[in-house]
Amino acid sequence: MSRKHNTARLHFTEEERASPELKKHIQKAEKAAERVEQVKKKARLQFEGDAPKPPSKLSHEVKKAPGRLLSEEVHRNIRESEDENVGVQAAHGTEQAAETALHMGESAYHAHKLKPQRELYKVEHKLDQANVDALYKQSLRNDPQGGSNPMSRYRQKQAIKKQYAAAKSGKRTEQTVKGTKKAAQETEKATEKVIRFIGRHRVGFLVFGLLGVLVFLLMNTFSSCSQMAMGTVQSVVGTSYLSEDDDILAVERAYIRMEDELDRRIDRIESEYPGYDEYRYSVDEIGHNPYVLISYLTAKYVSFTPSEMQSELETLFQEQYRLNITESIEIRYRTEEQTVTTIDPETGEESTTTEIVEVPYEYKILSVELLNHGIPISDLDAEQSEMYAVLMETRGNKPELFDSEDNPFVGSLDITPPTPYEIPPAALADPQFAALIREAEKYLGYPYVWGGSKPSTSFDCSGFTCWVLNQSGVASVGRTNARGLYKRSTVVSRAEAKPGDLIFFTGARAAQIGHPVTHVGIYVGNGMMIHCAGNGVEYHTIDSKYYKKNFYAFGRLGG
């Protein structure tokens, strides 16, 4: 006995169709539903096995009360289906429920009809995605506070997926009973995997609490509580890095090696391109936030090994960094003394005079520009982007994996609050320093922005220092990084340091690769500096624990 495969088409009100927030998503869902119907009609698919399946009950009527995710009819379908599918859902979890619903008739097809079946499943999968997106956008429209942060948005969308899958599947009790034994087996396997995962990644988890949940899960496989327990475990695991720590650290080291080679290449510029009158550098900081890299790779690939990521890392690196080397020639003039010999036409006597003349010559300039655009994440789809946001918020439940004190790109360089400070009047008696501080204080409170080098983009540490030096007229340094400023400075002791000097800091990894300078600020005297770090542009003591530990040198430009 055959039955027709029905299309899960949602129904929307006129008010919803007119809504700017929902219009595009509704159109996408309806277009996907039409495509499913076209494929079904073309293939004339027949399913064998059970009695005819009743038409889909999915509908969508927006309630005016905020927070309504689905219509009352969909709620009813969800309640009917969820109770019947508890065992299967507990085993496979919320996201796999949708896949189960899409593939429930797979074994019933004739072998010669597998090709149209695959085509149908493909378009139905797109339809389900479009329907879930439409329901999710409608829930945000009705309850904007429900998606106030990445974690709540992620959980909200997963809940909608589960409800949608349950309402769509409509499985009968006898089908659920047949799947119960398999569900128990799958639950045991899933539990073992989760226990192994927790054993590898203890920090960041409530270990004993989760183990208790797992025991409870095994004891209540066929109850609704077991479904909730599995959902809790999946929620924790779903916000975590699932790759091995050794693999994560190896991928991070591979990316650092590429950055180190780029750093060394910039150091070799003048030896590789000799003979220029001037080398002009505009170089962004080289570095990245390791949590951005690992969260991106996890959102895109779920788990990975270093060998699998080699090509991906190279692609990311090429998109993050742009090194431009250009040559230009200016015609300049220099003053030279020339000896001029003249002959008197009447007497024939020669006389010699010396003249000062302007002689043109070619002035060759090599411009070196390095742009750091940050690790690109634009190729993630909507669901991957949501997962990326969650992983960044939780740091993959591994906040200890990368040391923020050794990598300023992870976050704030110092967790202590900013210190209010007023420059002593005596220091302002120096007109150059007074000009420097007037310019610097314009930007107090501006946020730290990686690669930022002007007010319209905000600043990073070197971008702020270079801007202030250039705009105040105290020095002309172009745009360079902290190490470039250090190379232009003469080192002075702390006893010799005076307001207006630069102060440089280092980190453990930077020292290991031979390029120790990673951070720069402007010293203002009395153990204080003004700089741009994790808290933005601020005054800060140089004697805090972090800065004392990582102090490198004082430097004086032009000294």
The amount of helix comes to: 40-55%
Give the end-to-end Cα distance, rounded to a whole number of Å. 93 Å
How big a fraction of the residues is strand?
A: 15-25%
pLDDT average, as an integer? 74
What Rg do the Cα atoms give? 33 Å
- Outline type: elongated
Structural class: alpha+beta
Low-confidence stretches: 1-5, 45-113, 171-184, 203-208
- What is the makeup of the main sheet? 6 strands, antiparallel
Number of strands: 13
- How many helices in DSSP terms? 19
Major sheet: arrangement of strands: 8-13-9-10-11-12
Which quaternary structure do these chains form?
Answer: single chain
Summarize the structure.
The chain has 559 residues and is α+β, with helices and mostly antiparallel strands. It is built from 19 helices and 13 strands.
